[in-house]
Design brief:
The complex is a heterodimer. Chain A contains eleven helices and no strands. Chain A is mainly α. Chain A has one domain: MetI-like fold (Orthogonal Bundle), CATH 1.10.3720.10. In chain B, helix 5 crosses helix 6 and helix 6 packs across helix 7. Chain B is globular, with a radius of gyration of 19 Å. The chains are: A mainly alpha, B alpha/beta. The structure holds adenosine-5'-diphosphate and magnesium ion.
Chain lengths: ~280, ~290
């Protein structure tokens, strides 16, 4: 919309090229409808077994039923709860390590080493150990999530604090800020872009890790999460439910993208602090 | 809107010297009152000060010895070539680094930690808080120093008007030009009504035209506020346009080569100005063509 019309030569274009002028949501809606259409077409034409592949209609049915009756809602809630608590624990661990690193050289070295060791490790890789230590319960999951979340948060926070513009810190001291307010009012907002990146990565890692861990867990009593839901549905050959679980995961993933997008637009984008897109 | 036009209207602007809006001024924390302290005496005294940095290769001396003082309402310029320790000296006055020898006294107090009685304007454009609007950048330091939200905002608006930025109050720093950012920083520092205003080449990163305009504006503003000024630059013209006395730093590590009175040099096209320019060039030991530096 910012493009002046003069910059766009008035070339005659085919109807398809008008595509770009349609509203974004509408373009995505059309594409989504087309994808579902292909899905349905494949299902109808190929005659693939219902036990292998569900039609969009069956999946939609299973999805609505799951949410109306509460099974999907309950399992989603369980997963999100564990994820939130796990990332919270990870963030606390990260914060402690970063604070220690800020205060001493040994803390800094420790942080670097721990990050180098644990960050490349896929989150689920520690699941067998977690099961051994905590048993087949939520604590094991929390441990795995906290581990997946702590390292990206720690790296980003520590980079964030280290790269705070020294002039701004000098201004903070000059206007008479106490050390405590220097941290809360200057260092924290200055490191916000990195904090958000850390949280985003933690969320992405944690999300993949918890679903994978739940799938491996299989049955875990009444308190199963989304992964468990999918696994159970597969065991009982309720294929539309398997798909409905996947759809839920996809929708939640997109919802969090949007949420982080809004958060960024209201903060670091608005303040011109976001460097990369 | 031209800020200079605004300056002519002296009625409702925040002034230290003339109008006494006591409802506003009553809120001012200790710092303001202390300026009276400098009646005739010196507000800042730098006495045989030695400054340097501890680095990997031991102690690096930046200023060997400096002695001078700044009287109340005076505008003192410290001039020196790049690396002569001007910024070091300013940081020491601001309280960011301590002298290894000698004493810096501001309004009767020595060994001061950084504080708003010596508000600083830096050279860097990124000295504003990016997450605060222009108004908030000026108002927040006031709140930190005990002002209530509404009074602080009102005072911030007055100083934004003084620097010709009323129209940009709600913008964020990244939406401003370099010159506007420096004006905000000046408004922020002045709003704190410092005992002495410290400026470290605040116009050094601006283009020549903007720099000349901001120099004129600063002159007019200081005329109004009567703020005591400690200004650091490597530009002779800037020193002559803004200054009353010029401390010439020379060498590295540096010493004070001379303190020159430039209050009466006249306008830039006068013979007195040209003469003083040549003298300062000699004192700074600048060689080669004089291609102008302001
Ligand atoms: N943070 C620092 N650590 C070590 N040496 C410094 C530091 N800042 C400046 N110096 C040195 O001190 C000397 C004076 O620097 P500075 O005060 O910045 O000069 P100026 O502002 O006049 O250009 C220079 O030799 C410079 O290299
Ligand atoms: Mg400097």
């Amino acid at each position: 919309m910012a493009t002046p019309s003069a910059a766009v030569p008035a070339r005659p274009r085919g109807a398809l090229l008008r595509w770009g002028r349609l509203p974004t949501w509408f373009r995505y809606l059309v594409l989504l409808a087309a994808l579902i259409g292909i899905w349905q077409a494949y299902k109808s034409i190929s005659g693939v077994d219902d036990l292998l592949f569900s039609s969009p209609r069956d999946v939609a049915d299973a999805f609505w039923t799951g949410w109306r009756e509460g099974t999907l809602a309950r399992t989603t809630w369980t997963t999100l709860k564990i994820l939130a608590v796990g990332i919270g624990i990870g963030a606390l661990v990260a914060l402690t390590l970063v604070a220690f690193a800020a205060l001493s050289q040994i803390g800094e070295d420790l942080l670097r080493m721990l990050v180098a060791i644990f960050n490349p490790l896929p989150g689920v890789a520690v699941l067998p150990l977690a099961l051994l230590w905590f048993g087949l319960n939520t604590n094991a999951l929390l441990f795995v999530i906290a581990n997946a979340a702590a390292w990206p948060i720690a790296i980003n926070l520590s980079t964030g604090f280290k790269t705070v513009n020294p002039t701004i810190v000098a201004v903070g001291r000059n206007i008479g800020l106490s050390s405590r307010r220097l941290i809360t009012d200057v260092l924290a907002p200055a490191a916000l872009p990195y904090a958000i990146t850390g949280l985003k990565t933690a969320w992405a890692f944690g999300w993949r890790t918890i679903i994978a861990a739940e799938l491996i867990f299989g049955v875990a009593g009444a308190d199963g999460g989304l992964g468990t839901y999918i696994n159970n549905a597969k065991l009982f050959l309720m294929i539309p439910q398997v798909f409905a679980g996947l759809v839920t995961i996809a929708i939640l993933g997109m919802a969090f993208e949007v949420l982080f997008g809004v958060l960024e637009r209201r903060t670091i984008v608005r303040w011109g602090m976001k460097t990369s897109t | 809107m031209a800020p200079l036009a605004l300056l002519k209207d002296t009625r409702d602007l925040p002034l230290s010297g003339s109008t006494q809006d006591s409802s506003l001024r009553g809120e001012v924390p200790a710092a303001t009152a202390t300026r009276a302290n400098g009646a005739g005496g010196s507000v800042l005294s730098v006495d045989r000060v030695r400054l340097g940095y501890w680095g990997n290769r031991g102690f690096h001396l930046a200023v060997e010895e400096a002695t001078f003082d700044v009287k109340a309402r005076e505008r003192l310029i410290v001039i020196g070539q790049s690396g002569s320790g001007k910024s070091t000296l300013l940081k020491a006055v601001a309280g960011f680094i301590a002298p290894t020898d000698g004493a810096i006294t501001v309004a009767g107090r020595t060994s001061l930690a950084p504080g708003p009685d010596r508000a600083v304007v830096f050279q860097e454009f990124d000295q504003l808080f990016p997450w605060r609007s222009v108004l908030e950048n000026v108002a927040y330091p006031l709140r930190v120093n005990g002002w209530r939200r509404r009074e602080g905002a009102a005072r911030a608006r007055e100083y934004l008007e003084l620097t010709g930025l009323s129209h940009a109050a709600d913008r964020y720093p990244h939406e401003l030009s370099g010159g506007m950012k420096q004006r905000v920083a000046i408004a922020r520092a002045l709003a704190l009504e410092p005992v002495i205003l410290l400026m470290d080449e605040p116009f050094g990163s601006l283009d020549a035209i903007t720099r000349a305009r901001l120099q004129r504006e600063l002159n007019a503003i200081l005329e109004r506020t009567q703020t005591t000024l400690f200004f650091v630059t490597h530009s002779i013209d800037e020193a002559l346009i803004l200054g009353e006395r010029v401390v010439v730093l020379h060498g590295s590590p540096s010493t004070v080569r001379e303190i020159v009175d430039v209050e009466d040099v006249g306008p830039p096209d006068s013979p007195g100005y040209a003469e003083m320019r040549i003298r300062l060039r000699e004192l700074l030991a600048i060689e080669g063509e004089d291609d102008g530096d302001a």
